[in-house]
Every structure is written in structure tokens, then in C-alpha cells.
Amino acid sequence: MTGNGSLHANLTGIVLEQDDFEKVRRLIYAYSGINMHEGKHALVRARLMKRLRELRMDSFRDYLNYIESEEGSAEFLSFVDVLTTNKTHFFRENKHFDFIRDKVAAEVAGRNKKWWSAGCSSGEEPVTLAITLFESLKSMNTKPTGVKILATDLSREVLGIAKAGEYPENRMDDVPQEIKRKYFRKQASISASYGVSPEIMQMITYGRLNLLAEWPMKGPFHVIMCRNVMIYFDRKTQQQLISRFYNLLEPGGYLFIGHSESVSGKDHSFVNVMPAVYQKPGRPDS
Question: 3 pLDDT exceeds 80?
Fold first, then answer.
């Protein structure tokens, strides 16, 4: 570390050497399964520079040695945070939510069912899911008391945003005006922001989870949404996750993935029911 202000001001000239980049790749892959390919070199450097500035360090090599030390064990989680933060938005791939509204909601009305948003980022996906279910069940004169949505992510940073349930105005562009009026509250703050209504937030439980580690929650789930997450994993890790998702779904349950992702493999019998939506064969439990 350095206390030299002029040196700190010149950190932009620090090079992420190839050996250090390879070490970053090994560390994040071993921990989370995320595959940082060569094309991510510039992105990795830019994101890790935030941590070097924060810690007033002037070498990527020193930083990597630090996060592997006992003294830097807490910083390792910040290392994970900056490399895994990703963007999302409300009603992303809206046809998925249309499918939930038009088909899935009717299947689960009046039943206690579990839902999982795996890789929920800053919360837009589980909030959209909760709103979709709330609206659909209300139209069927059914209260959403049996809806339990688990939302997990690896990053502490994005989970903090998700748990707060407050979003700046520029993140609300994809929210229909009627939905915004019903389920968001304009916050009285200097910067315009919207808070998710309590009736929606109480449907969601947020928690930190490494998808490669043990999963403490018990199924079965009726719906698992893991969209645009597996693109960061290699083929072997993807297939392992798909098999684990399959085993945790109830018969008749659904897996939603990203359009650029695949469930190809031999350890499951998923049936494709619409683009990027797969169903586990069988009849759901009551």
C-alpha cells in the first residue's frame, strides 16, 4: 500500500499483466465457476482498479497476494463483488412474464408454491415476478399468500440494492405506467427514486448464494429463473447446474433461462415449452 498522493493519482498507468490476469481467472473460477475469458482483460482491469484506489494500492500483484492472505480475507468478497456485478432491468424478456401470467399463475392459484430467482442481481427480476403473480392471482380473486419467492445472488453489492427495494428514476423506463402507479412509491429524496410497495417486497426473501456451493434451501420449486447467468460459466459447470435445477424442481415445474443459454445434457428430461422455457415432465403436487 502507499500513502503517496501523487502515486495514487497516477494509478491509471498500472498494467494488469497477463500472469496476474490468469491468476484472477483462476481465483474467480475456483470460487464461483465464472469463466473470465481473454476478452474480459480490460473489463477485469477496470473493475479491479476500483479496489486498488479504495485500498491505495499501486500493484495488481500486491492486491492479489493481499486477498489470498489471512489479513485480506474480507477483501476477497469485495473482489468477487466487483467482478460479478451485472446489469438487469424490470420486465426483461417480457414474454417470459406473459407466460407466467397466462399459464403458470392459473396452475398455482390457491396453492403454496416456491419460486426461485437465481442470480437476481439488484432485484428487478424477482420484483417483476412478484408483481406479475400478484396481478394475475388478483384477477382470479385469489390472494398471493402462498407465493414465496427466494431471490439469491453472489454479489453483496447488488443484494444490498435489492433488499432496499429502491430504484432511481432512470431504472424505471421499462415499467408500464399503470404498474408503476400501483406498486411503486415516489421517494421524497433529493434524487428522484421509486420504492417497491411493501405488499410486493413481503413476497420476496433475499439471500446470498454461491451457485457452485451447497444449496441450503429445500425444494421443490415450481419455477426457477436463472436467466443470463450461465453464460458466464463453462459448459461443464452449466450442465452441472442444469442437473441440479432439474432435481430441485417439482414434476411439472419450469426452468427459465436466457435466450443465449442451453439445457443440453443427458442428466435430465426437460421439455422445451417456449423459447428459453423448459418444463420438467410430470404432474405438479397439490
Answer: no
